[in-house]
UniProtKB/TrEMBL annotation:
Keyword ATP-binding: yes
Domain called ABC transporter: residue spans: 1-226
One term of GO molecular function: ATP hydrolysis activity
Source species of the chain: Actinomadura barringtoniae
Name the record gives this protein: Metal ABC transporter ATP-binding protein
Entry-linked InterPro entries: AAA+_ATPase, ABC_transporter-like_ATP-bd, ABC_transporter-like_CS, Metal_Ion_Import_ABC, P-loop_NTPase
Pfam family, one: ABC_tran
Lineage top rank: taxon: Bacteria
Keywords on record: ATP-binding, Nucleotide-binding, Transport
Amino acid sequence: MTGGRVRLDGREVLAGVDLRVEPGDVLAVMGPNGAGKSTLVKALLGLIPLSGGRTEIYGAAPARFRDWKRVGYVPQRLPMGGGVPSTVREVVASGRVARQSRWRPTSAADRAAVDRALETVGLTDRARDSAHLLSGGQQQRVLIARALAGEPDVFVMDEPTAGVDAASQAALAATLRDLTGDAGRTIVLVTHGLGPMESFVDRALVLEHGHVVHDGAPQTTMGAAG
Ligand SMILES: Nc1ncnc2c1ncn2[C@@H]1O[C@H](COP(=O)(O)OP(=O)(O)OP(=O)(O)O)[C@@H](O)[C@H]1O
Ligand SMILES: [Mg+2]
């Protein structure tokens, strides 16, 4: 993203952000409530249009980007409202959709990836339950599992551990550490504190009022979980 600007309701929420994420980067996006963190990650993915500047995903403008199986997005909240209730397994399996087509329906590899993702977030025994009946922290883990199931190259996670208990946070941190190790995945995650992720996050971008006020090594004060 170069000079990325976003206006919402006539207010500049992103005020010219330059951000380049390299393959293998593990980047934490931090800053106070309302700083523009969620807006930034949505704009990076083309979910919110820029009012100025430009952004690319693997070299393509978001509107022209086609290879969505390379990207796993964990939104800050489950956009679940109305519609048909889905089971936990169905929501997680939807993370495989970008890998499927009319010509290649659900395969054994898809089912195995969904099983692994459910296991990783500790929801195997809730797989048949209705996702909207789960607690907030459990729903967050469903969203994480959905992204894991897609086996993307880059994870974009908006406060994946907000409202998630300490044990589940530690389990997620261990999973992410594995993804960044030999697997070499790229991770962009919004968080209020690095907590157990401190050991493998190598870069922190701090936003305030839509401006980047820090881009570099995480600072020690960022360690607290939140
Ligand atoms: N759809 C919208 N219309 C108008 N203003 C919006 C909209 N979405 C967000 N905003 C405003 O943009 C600013 C940044 O919001 P954003 O959600 O990006 O913040 P954030 O850094 O993710 O905060 P949090 O830590 O609470 O998640 C806030 O002041 C918010 O009120
Ligand atoms: Mg946010």
